[in-house]
Design goal:
The protein is α/β, with parallel strands linked by helices and about 260 residues long. It has one domain: 3-Layer(aba) Sandwich (Dihydrofolate Reductase, subunit A). It is built from seven helices and 13 strands. The strands form three sheets. A nine-stranded mixed β-sheet has the order 8-7-6-5-9-3-10-13-12, with helices on both faces. Strands 1-2 form a two-stranded antiparallel ribbon. It has a two-stranded antiparallel ribbon with strand order 4-11. Helix 3 links the parallel strand 5 and strand 6. The longest helix has 14 residues. The radius of gyration is 18 Å and the shape is globular. Pathway: Cofactor biosynthesis; riboflavin biosynthesis.
C-alpha cells in the first residue's frame, strides 16, 4: 500500500535508523536501537477506562505498524497490555503475498510473572505461528512465584531476570543491556502507558545520551474523555522532551508524527 505516492516501506526506511549507522554500535552503548511507538486520541489517550483496549489506528496506520514490526528484532509490551489486550504482536495485517518471513520476538515486561500461560503469544508459539516469547521478570523473584515461572516455561516462554526498582519497575538500562546480550539489535516498544512513561522518564535521566532513538506517534481523529488512560502521568516538566521533528505524514484518517529525542 502507498500513501501519497510513497509506500509504507519507503516511509519507514526514511525514518528508522539502521544498525551499523548509529552511535549505539560503539562499545560504550551496548543496547538495541529503540523505536517507541503508539497510537493516541486527540486528547492524548491510548486506552479506555481501566486500560480497556481501544482500536485507535485506522487501516492505513495499522498496516504501517505491522510493517514496522517486521523491521525490528523484538517487540516489547508491558504486562498490563498483555493481560488487557492479549496481543499477538505479529504482522498478520500485511497481505500474505507481501508479508516478510521475519517474525519479531515478543518481549513482555512482567516483574511478578502474571502472564497467562494460555495467552495468544504462547499459543502461537506452540502452534508454530510465532516466535518464543521472552518474559522479563524481577531478577530477585519472590520464591513464592517459582510455580508461576515453571508454568510459563512449560508453556514455552523463556523467563529472563532483570533488576527492578524499589517501585517495582524493571530497570530500563539493564533491560536493554540484557536484550542486546541476547542478540536483539532493534527493539520496538509499543506500550502500554506505564512502559511508555518509564522509557520517556529514563530517556530524560540518561541525557545527553538517550535510550529512545525514534518516536513514532499515530494520532487518531477521536476523543476518549477523562476516563481514558494517558501516558504522561507522573512525568515532571524536567522529564518531558523537546522533540526533533523528522516527518509528519497523513495515513488515511490518521496523522503520523516521527521525532527523535
Amino acid at each position: 500500500m502507498s500513501t501519497g505516492g510513497e509506500s509504507v516501506k519507503e516511509f519507514l526506511s526514511s525514518v528508522l535508523p539502521v544498525p551499523g549507522n548509529s552511535r549505539v554500535e560503539d562499545e560504550r552503548f551496548q543496547r538495541p536501537l529503540v523505536t517507541l511507538t503508539f497510537a493516541q486520541s486527540l486528547d492524548g489517550k491510548i486506552a479506555g477506562k481501566g486500560g480497556k483496549q481501544l482500536i485507535l489506528s485506522g487501516r492505513e496506520s495499522m498496516l504501517m505498524t505491522h510493517w514496522m514490526r517486521t523491521k525490528h528484532d523484538a517487540i516489547l509490551v508491558g504486562i498490563g497490555t498483555a493481560l488487557n489486550d492479549d496481543p499477538q504482536l505479529n504482522s498478520r495485517h500485511i497481505p500474505e503475498h507481501e508479508r516478510p518471513s521475519h517474525l519479531p520476538r515478543p518481549v513482555i515486561l512482567d516483574a511478578s510473572l502474571r502472564l497467562r500461560s494460555d495467552c495468544k503469544l504462547l499459543r502461537n508459539y506452540q502452534e508454530g505461528k510465532g516466535r518464543r516469547p521472552w518474559v522479563i521478570c524481577d531478577a530477585n523473584l519472590n520464591p513464592d512465584y517459582a510455580g508461576r515461572k515453571s508454568t510459563l516455561e512449560n508453556a514455552g516462554a523463556r523467563v529472563i531476570g532483570v533488576k527492578r526498582t524499589s517501585l517495582g519497575f524493571i530497570v530500563i538500562p539493564d533491560l536493554l543491556k540484557a536484550l542486546y546480550t541476547y542478540g536483539v539489535k532493534t527493539l520496538m516498544v509499543e506500550g502500554g502507558a506505564a512502559v511508555i512513561g518509564s522509557f520517556l522518564a529514563e530517556s530524560a535521566r540518561a541525557k545527553p545520551s538517550t535510550i529512545i532513538d525514534t518516536l513514532i506517534i499515530t494520532i487518531a481523529p477521536t476523543l476518549v474523555g477523562d476516563e481514558g488512560v494517558g501516558y504522561g502521568k507522573g512525568l515532571s516538566t524536567e522529564q518531558t522532551h523537546s522533540l526533533k521533528h523528522i516527518r509528519t505524514k497523513i495515513m488515511g484518517q490518521d496523522v503520523v508524527i516521527v521525532g527523535a529525542l
